[in-house]
Each structure stands twice: as structure tokens, then as C-alpha cells.
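Question (not urgent): is this output format expected?
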Amino acid sequence: MRLSRKNDPDSVRGRQQALGLPEVDLQPYERAAESVTGLVSIPVSVAQLAVSLGEYELSEDGEVRATGRSDEEVVVPLAHTEGGLTASVQRGAKAIAESGGARTYVVADRITRASCFVCKNAGEALALAHWIEGEVPAMREFLRASDSPELSRHAVLREAKTHVVGPMCHVLWRFTTGDAFGANMMTRNAYALNMAYVLPQAPVAIERTILEANMGGDKKPSFEYFQQGHGKTVIAETTLTEAAIERVLRTTLGDLEELAWAGTHGAVASGMQSVAFTPASAIAAVFAATGQDLGLVSTSSLAHGTEPRVAGGPHVSTRSPGIVVGPVGGGTTLPDPKRWLELMGCAGPGKVYRLAQLVAATALALEISASAAMATAGSENFFRAHFERGGMR
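Got this back:
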């Protein structure tokens, strides 16, 4: 059986009939993917967060600048089938609210494409690296002044980080991409830099040009992204009261500190880059509900959690160096994700930093609740939650 790959109505119906699927109108989804044939329904639950959100704008030189701050109660959608997840997020959010709320900060904004130029030898690769680093202002102007329809004016080149190994000159092109996640636009601009600027003007002969050569770690956890960031770098924090720890989280400050001690050493022993409990579950659920690229859950889930004791209780924070989101384009144009983004106040241009902060705040709430459950004697609360809400037995 050979199925048509087009997305016109006749082709869609033909695939549905051939596969014995119900005939569903998929016209709103025909631009979302190729060979669209059906839909999958995932339940969406909601959690309520009390959070102080920063208001930000990007300066001309590419720095994130704070312009204001507001205390809000926000409803966040979670699309998932993981029993206990929403209850845990909401429990963490309740502990945060009773402790005065969470605060979030956007620290940086960069998205990268890791290209590579293969030269004759290491000496020529080093010469190319020095030349590229000095050409960044001219390259930025080259992209800005071009009238090519293949380029994006929203993807602005900010820096170029080089790394030479053997005859290879790896280049991490670092962009800002406005309100969009930006993979397509930065890919087009990086390709133009490689083929229309570097290749014809390079001071050495280039034997091979590769658009993405894995120095950054696209859609994978990597030390480069953990350290330098990829997307929006966001810090989320709260100071929990001992009353909230005991009454809402059903554990003690001492038990949380013991868990943090053991967990940190476990992370060191495993060579773990991301020192956090389970941010991926919360981030995947928000991504699925709001039409984000699910392939970027891995990068976006990198986090560095800390929990020092301060006056009033433990100061709990996470630094997420690579939250890759966009409130425009891609899946955000589909009917359901658009409605959930609107509910969060994150739909459309100018909302990308708000969305990134809400993702980080949701992950912080889950970190707090899941850690508290694991900190109980024998981790009984963690076991009970999965036994009672885990579905099949």
C-alpha cells in the first residue's frame, strides 16, 4: 500500500480510509506537519502559580534589560498522562504561595547553530578562527543589509565562538531571534554566513563546510548549553517557610537538606551536568499544551538547583540555562495551543520572556514537591504518590 504524502483534503481522506481511521477535518493542521492523517488527544490539566514575573526587552546590543515587575496568579496548562504530575506541581505551587510566592528572572537570550569548516591542517584552521572572530561586525551588517528572501531579519548575529580541533574550525553562531524559537531563521542565516560570506572570503582554503556539527548539542543535553545557555536563561527562586514545608509538603527542613546532600553527590558521581530533580516532566507538559517543539525538552530541562538555608527557611532556586520557547510560529498557531497561550497571557509578539519565566516557575514548583516526597522517611510519600496515581497495577 502506497499512501499519498500530500495534505490536500482528498489525500488526507485517502490515508484515513486506507488505514481504517475515522475521517476528521484536519484543515487547521495541514501546515503543521507532512502527511497529516489524524489527531491524538492528550488530557490538559491546570496548575495555579503565584509568581513575581519580570518584564524585559532586548537592547540594541543584544542584552536582556528589565523594565518592570508584577506579582501575578497565573493558570498554567499541563498536557500529559503522567499520574500524579499535576497534583505534585500544584502542591509545590501551594507551598510557594504560602511562602510568599516565587520570583523569576531572565538572565540572557541566545540561540545557536554550530557550524564547522574543515581546513587542510590545524594551522589554517586557527587562522580561519581568528579571522572569523574579527569579522563578526561585518557579518552582522552583511545579514542586515541583504535583500535576499531566504534570510530572516529577526535572527540577529550577536557573537561567534570558535573552537579548533585538528583541521576543524568549529564555529558557534550565536543569535537572538525575537519572539520566535528561531531554529528555521537562524539556520537560514547561518547557511548564508557559511556559503556566501566565509567560503568566498576566507584567508585559507576550506575543504568542507558543515552547517551543524554538534559543538553546541542541538536538541541534546550538553555542557556547552549548561554553561553558556541556548534559548532563554531563567532563574526561578523562592524561600520556603518551615510551616509550609511541614504543613503542605509533609516533610522537614532537615530531611530536605539530607536529600540535597545525597542527591548532589549522586549527581557528581554520575557526571551529571543538570543538577536538579525532575524538571523535564513539567517542561514537557507545558510544551505539549502550548505548541512548543518537543524535541527541545531535553535542552530546556537542563537545570542547576540550589537549596541553602537562610533566615526564614531554605532558599530554593533553579537556573535553567536553555529554555527554548516561542509564543509565535510553529505549533503555537494551532487552535488548542493558541487558546492555552492566551489563557497564560503569553500569546503573540512580545510574550516570549513571560512564557520562558512561567515554564521555569512551573518546573520549580515540581522540583519542590517531588523533592519533598522523596525526602520523607524511606521516600514513602514518593512511593505512595506513584502507587496511588500511577495507573495500571
